[in-house]
Amino acid sequence: MLPDQPTVRDLVRHIQAELFKGDLDPLRARELLIQSTALLGNCLQEIREADAVYARVLLAHLDSTEAASRAKIRAETSPEYQRKQEARDTKELLQESARSLKYYLRSLSDEMQLAR
């Protein structure tokens, strides 16, 4: 990633901030929904990569430790585990943002139909 480009997490934070402010116009809500959906694909790719890296860390701890529970605890304190969890958390945030935007757009559509 280029230094000037925002990360996926930065983009998700921006979407959340706009949702938190509320009072979105329908066009902006649609744009944010499309952006959320597109970013979800990036999250899924990051989850796959982070899972693979974490699995190697866990395997290394399992090979060097007698107890599997102890190896798991050691692996869960690694930066690789944190990366894995952050990717999963970001995915959940995007899914919830997309759900909220869909509900918002649906309610606007219902209001417009009732106004007719």
Query: How many domains?
Result: 1
**What pattern of helices and strands is seen along the backbone?**
HHHH
Number of helices: 4
Number of strands: 0
Q: Helical content, roughly?
A: over 70%
Strand content: under 5%
Quick check: average pLDDT? 91
Instruction: Name the structural class.
Output: mainly alpha
Alpha-carbon Rg, integer: 19 Å
Distance between the termini: 49 Å
Low-confidence stretches at least 5 residues in length (pLDDT < 50)? none
Largest sheet: none
General form: elongated
What does this protein look like?
With 116 residues, this protein is mainly α. The protein has one domain (8-110). It is 84% helix and 0% strand. The chain has four helices and no strands. α1 packs parallel to α4 (79-115) and α2 (26-64) packs across α3 (68-75). It starts with 7 loop residues before the first helix and ends with a helix. The mean pLDDT is 91.
Brief overview:
The chain is mainly alpha-helical.
Task: Chart the SSEs and their pairings.
Blueprint: H1 8-21, H2 26-64, H3 68-75, H4 79-115
Looking at this protein, list some descriptive labels.
84% helix; 116 residues; 4 helices; elongated; mainly alpha
